[in-house]
Model the fold of this input.
Amino acid sequence: MSNNNKVALVTGASKGIGRGIAYGLAKAGWDVAVNYNSDQAGAEETAAHVRELGQQSWILQADAGYGEQVTAMFDKLRADAGRLDLLVNNAGVQTFASLLDLKEEDFDRTIRTNLKGCFLCSQQAARAMKEQGKGGAIINIGSGANKQPFPSLVDYCASKGGIENLTKVCAVELGPLGIRVNCVAPGAIEIERTKLEAGDYAGTWGPITPMRRVGQAQDVAAVVVFLASEAAEFTTGQTIYVDGGLWTAAQWPYSSES
Done:
């Protein structure tokens, strides 16, 4: 069972931004449940470092897009940790394909994991928090794709746009229960996956970002920690872009020389 520390569940925390969020929460004094789908070794590494930071950690396997698996995950979390104060919906996938070439099964997988997974986990978390009667927080990880159309990311853009509106309706419904729901939308963040998308990811995105660098997982984690804290107790239904100004600049004429 957990001690008196608050407990967070981070989905898709075996690597990348999810791992960075788990570490940021642990440094801020949170115990962290680490969810993974297929990368057990990565999840164990994340959990081990959370423990090195002095916090408790549990490993929970589930595909966030399937209701039975999500229900079982939350049942195990109750048994292991005894409480839940924060859910971070981070698990996500994407397919690089044009509208004309995108396969139905790939579209379904992305919507199921990103959007349906966010719904399923939020529903279970909200039920647990309501039962506890102490409120809580849900933070959804969005993207610049919340509002910017990216060619060949049809399914991803659709899922992230949906997450932004899901965030708002959840905030309205859950506010009376003391549960806050917000969205954090990263910009160009350098992680394992994005490094594979471009030969020089930082060199590609850094010059067109107003802050003149790409983001790191800890940049996203810092905002998640803030939104999970008492300092944000009157903030809900919002999307905060952690992008160094990238998506603001993308709406206006902007060059690396300006």
Remarks:
- The first helix runs from residue 16 to 27.
- Residues 252-258 have pLDDT under 50 and may be disordered.
- The two ends are 55 Å apart (CA to CA).
